[in-house]
Design brief:
This protein is an alpha/beta fold. It contains 13 helices and 26 strands.
Length: about 500
């Protein structure tokens, strides 16, 4: 009933050919110009042998060529595979081989990674955006020699696979969640409802568009026929100038970027950000202090969401303009099209979906919705944690008496000290509110007496911050139980984080 991404795009081009679709650098594409570029690339990919069902990798920054590559795949019935360029070449190479990609688009700035991938790429064709073009690759600019007419028609169903988004890989090798046209369009509709979008809006993702939440943000603007700005590599002052220049109405940013934007705003003086009405985020809990700082500095509301790659969507959301201030540190309640339950915190596949906790209480969040994927792309389906349609994300949450959900941590991150379960993210969130702490990560360290003790690795905001001051901060607060306070504290220069701003637990260990 929803049709396909190709059908949706064709309808937008037919209705509003001259409206702005994509802005990148000094180039603005209206919908008809974007369509011409998409068709040219589709003809080139077809010449290279790409056909319906084949995978095409997008190893790209936030650029117009991402939109062109994504949509060219939809024209051919191929499957776009969004590859995180910040991962090690070995992780990207695993996806390339596992998914047997027929082509890969990459920015010239990523040529070193692309060259490493070519060594074991088999029959995969490499297309370089920009220059210089490394040996063994072909220039994306060759598209100019192909016609702007529609490629040969291919029969595509709403149930066909269209896109692959990879998990963040913080606890293991990234896996590709496979989405159909129907699930991607449902997610686009959900994002439009959550953000109040119509074709008069202008969006810009500050996070790489190749990651799940940002990809869905991108597809939402495609769906509704609204313009979006591709900013290339992120830098806070650059982002603010683009927001002002193009009168951006919504952005997607991770919490680390939100803090940087609020800081940078003070350095830029007069800058008209008045069209910016909403900043969407996801991936990490956000303190009330940061929410206020963003609202004061940028003049916009904040929508903080929680989701999983496997659900292809936001599962819950909390909106500073719609929810009470005392609930802002929550991840809200279930979003459109989603069923959410909190069950007993045993192993996800052993806990029954009807084994509910008492409210208020703490347990494992599970969800069910029409966007949830049925498989990992080119990966055995038994690796997908699902029962009767319920997805088990292995995240521990707390539910208050009003039904608002608060993130605690992943089951896999638990520290067991003296028989007590302690979750690092809960302590990290508490410590992050200290005015002299710029960044913090918590882990468990082996101990003969307690089994494990809590260790905090801290990046100072003020050089005079001491371990004693942190311990007093923990003891004087009623927010953190005494047995959860760090027994060991180490000051470090930086912490390993992934593209969503989450602590990279594997690298941390």
């Amino acid at each position: 009933m929803l049709g396909t991404l190709r059908d949706n795009f064709a309808g937008t081009v037919a209705k509003w050919p001259d409206r702005t679709a994509v802005i990148h650098g000094d180039r603005t594409y209206c919908w008809s110009e974007l369509n011409a570029g998409v068709n040219r690339l589709a003809h080139l990919l077809a010449e290279l042998g790409v056909k319906k069902g084949d995978g095409v990798g997008l190893l790209l920054h936030n650029c117009a060529e991402f939109a062109i590559g994504f949509l060219a795949c939809q024209k051919l019935g191929a499957v776009s595979s969004c590859l995180n360029y910040r991962l090690a070449p070995a992780s990207v190479g695993f996806a390339l081989q596992q998914e047997k990609l027929k082509a890969l688009l990459f920015n010239a700035e990523l040529s070193a990674t692309a060259s490493a991938l070519m060594k074991d790429a088999g029959d995969c064709h490499f297309l370089c955006v920009g220059g210089p073009v490394p040996a063994g690759a072909r220039s994306f600019g060759d598209c100019a020699g192909f016609p702007a007419t529609e490629p040969p028609a291919v029969e595509i169903q709403a149930s066909d696979l269209c896109n692959v988004i990879h998990t963040s890989g913080t606890t293991g090798r990234p896996k590709g969640a496979a989405f159909t046209h129907e699930t991607q369009l449902l997610t686009a509709i959900q994002y439009c409802l959550e953000m109040g979008l119509d074709r008069g809006h202008v969006g810009m993702s500050l996070a790489p568009v190749v990651i799940g939440a940002a990809t869905n943000f991108f597809v939402a603007y495609l769906f509704v026929g609204a313009a979006q700005v591709m900013m290339g590599e992120y830098e806070a002052r650059k982002a603010l100038r683009l927001i002002a220049r193009h009168r951006v109405t919504e952005t997607f940013a991770v919490p680390t970027q939100m803090y940087q934007l609020a800081e940078a705003r003070q350095q830029l003086g007069e800058l008209d950000l008045s069209p910016l009405r909403l900043m969407r985020s996801g991936g990490s809990p956000i303190s009330r202090q940061l929410m206020h700082r963003v609202r004061d500095a940028l003049g916009c509301e904040v929508l903080n969401t929680y989701g999983t790659t496997e659900s292809c969507t936001a599962i819950t959301g909390s909106h500073t303009g719609l929810d009470p201030e005392e609930k802002w540190e929550s991840i809200g309640k279930a979003s459109y099209f989603q069923e959410v339950r909190v069950v007993q915190a045993r192993d996800g596949m052993e806990t029954r979906p009807d084994d509910l906790i008492g409210i208020p209480g703490e347990g494992q969040l599970i969800n069910r919705g029409p966007q949830s994927v049925a498989e990992y792309y080119c990966t055995p389906t038994e690796q997908l944690r699902a029962r009767d349609g319920w997805q088990y994300a292995r995240d521990i949450v707390r539910v208050d008496a009003d039904g608002y959900i608060y993130p605690v941590d992943r089951i896999d991150n638990v520290i067991i000290s003296g028989g007590e379960n302690i979750y690092p993210q809960e302590i990290e969130f508490f410590l992050s509110k200290h005015p002299k702490i710029a960044d913090v990560a918590v882990c468990g360290v082996a101990d003969d007496k307690w089994g494990q003790v809590v260790k905090a690795l801290i990046v100072r905001r003020a050089p005079d911050l001491s371990a004693g001051e942190i311990d007093r901060y923990c003891l004087e607060s009623s927010e953190l139980a005494r047995h959860k306070r760090p027994k060991l504290i180490e000051f470090v220069e930086s912490l390993p984080r992934n593209v969503l701003g989450k602590i990279d637990r594997t690298a941390l260990r």
